[in-house]
Amino acid sequence: MRNKRKLGRPTDQRKAMLRAMVTYLLENGSIRTTVTRAKEVQAITDKMITLGKKGGLANYRQALAFITKEDVAHKLFTETAPKYESRNGGYTRIIRTGPRRGDAAEMCIIELV
User: Fold this and answer.
1) Is 92 inside any structural domain?
2) pLDDT for 36-95, tens place per residue?
3) C-beta pairs of 33-37 under 8 Å, 24+ apart in sequence
4) Are 81 and 49 in contact (CB under 8 A)?
5) Which pick of 46, 58, 63, 77 has the fewest CB atoms within 10 Å?
6) What pLDDT is stored for residue 3 in this prediction?
7) 91: domain range?
8) What pLDDT is stored for residue 65 in this prediction?
9) Which one, of 85, 107, 92, 102, lies nearest residue 29 by Cα?
10) Residue 18: what pLDDT?
11) Residue 3 resides in a domain
């Protein structure tokens, strides 16, 4: 990824926010957020699911280094990733829901397909 979106935050805060959002998405299946955040989360989530499909200890540890909850990483490798075994990418869907009331930011729902 060459030009990452900075999302108006310093690097450490941005990474922490994205880690939390990816973990929550893998745990619950969907998130309501802004479109720009969803696009960043989508790229990372697809990479995590690809790690889960590959399997193996090294990939599990790599996913665990990013995902903040160990039980979510375990669920990724045992339940979530096997569902997408026949699918080559595109594990998430972004559905736009219109502007937010306060600041008119474009909102969406990102969910696992």
Assistant:
1) yes
2) 999 999 999 999 999 999 999 999 999 999 999 999 999 999 999 999 999 999 999 999
3) 33/107, 33/108, 33/110, 34/100, 34/105, 34/106, 34/107, 34/108, 35/94, 35/96, 35/106, 35/107, 35/108, 36/5, 36/7, 37/7
4) yes
5) 58
6) 75
7) 13-112
8) 96
9) 92
10) 97
11) no
Asked if residue 88 belongs to a domain, the reply is yes
Residue 1 has pLDDT above 90, yes or no: no
On whether the pTM is more than 0.90, the answer is yes
Instruction: Give the burial class of 69: count Cβ atoms within 10 A of its Cβ; 0-12 exposed, 13-18 middle, 19 or more buried.
Output: middle
CATH of the domain at 86: 3.90.1030.10
Look up residue 88 and give its two tokens.
């080559």
The sheet carrying 92-99 orders its strands as 30-34, 106-112, 92-99
Instruction: Let me know if residue 8 belongs to a domain.
Output: no
Number of domains the chain contains: 1
Q: Which helix (H) or strand (E) holds 32?
A: strand 30-34
Residues 6+ apart with CB under 8 A from 106: 34, 35, 96, 98, 99, 100
Length of the chain counted residue by residue: 113
